[in-house]
Amino acid sequence: MAEYIQKxxxxxIFINRxxxxxxxxxxxxxxxxxxxxLIDLLSxxxxxxxxxxxxxxxxxxxxxxDYLSLGVSEPYxxxxxxxxxxxxx
Length: 89
Known about the structure:
mainly beta, 11% helix, elongated
């Protein structure tokens, strides 16, 4: 069977089967972020925290295990509007 190739800016998070204490995470996983997205974000934000947008979908593995499939992107920012173009003459 072919090995799964992770798509850029995606990830998965699964139930943590190694949880032994209440302070251990309920779920664990990985996200694979494209280098170009990181470079772009770093060039736009010279200091401070960088915000990433996450999206998640409930999925099941072929063996029936529940997990969340994740997508990572730059946060959507609504473009500034210049007013109604029909009002401008």
